[in-house]
Request: fold
Amino acid sequence: MAKAAKKSGNKGAAKVKPQPSAGKAPKDSLILASRMGETNGGGSPENVPGFDLFRAVTAGFETKRVAGATIVAALPDGGFFSQAGGDVGPVLQGSPASKPENVIGADNRARVTDTAMTPWRCICHLEVQYDSGPVGMGTGFLIGPYTVITAAHVLVDRQKFGWNKPRRAQQIRILPGRNGTLAPYGYVVTDKYEVPAGWNDNDANETAATAFDYGAVFIPKKSENEVEDEALGERLGYFGLRAFAKVELHDVELLFINNAGYPIEPGKPFGTLWYNAGRISKWADRHVEYMVDTEGGHSGSPIYYFDEKKQQRYVVAIHTTGDFVNRGLRITPSIFEKIRVWAQRKH
Reply:
């Protein structure tokens, strides 16, 4: 399996340059630019041993401590998010789609410890309170000033009680760059989200719904965060988005991609971010397959590549499910257009 790489904010990470063709943009290619280099007022910190970088980059935000999943599971009917106090209960179960995500062979993931830096702070842990049943968990990523993209099944769970008895999110807590019990940029609680009808409708077709397994969570203008004069996505940054044209797919057949998400599994502290990378193994009409390690909780995480020439990070798929080969929902032109509209929303 390809080793974790590229220019991603990890100190000392090996640098793997994506295929040159990935940076080309034919006339019919669809691209939304990312915003990461423009954050911090356009500046970037120097690497000086002993300097408290975390404190510097989180200045102006309300850093908070949050509890782990065991407290949530101990509360009646799942409770509301992770709270301090209470008895230790069983480990929470995630909200996977039809198949669980899997580690492929030996686990090659590496924990991200500098989650206050880009691009990691643009990846969010999601805690979801539904209209029934226990709290669920997932991953999302910032795609605009007020928008977080994730998998639809994180927001509308059709597995817990069966496909015909969906349970829908009532409130979602968004924790950008969460690092265990530390929320470096605080958190936002919202009840505003959208999921395509092909997944959300009561009579949605279970087989066809996999093509609609994506959704958006909207950040309110008034939030728990101290920074009120600038949208959270503008301050922290957000990913770009790319829908490759059909004529490009042959050229990016083995595109080197990155992924990071919040797994729910034994041996990994709850609420910690784990990174892995590899290559695309198959581009299908609706999905992308890749040899990248994931587990339950990674659903909704970004599958992205780093364009060296443009110094931009582009999401090409949303991780949804997997088996021996893990799989994400490909950013097709129609999905690109829907997310583009969501990314421009202001809440």
Observations:
- The longest helix spans residues 333-343.
- The radius of gyration is 19 Å.
- Residues 1-21, 69-106 have pLDDT under 50 and may be disordered.
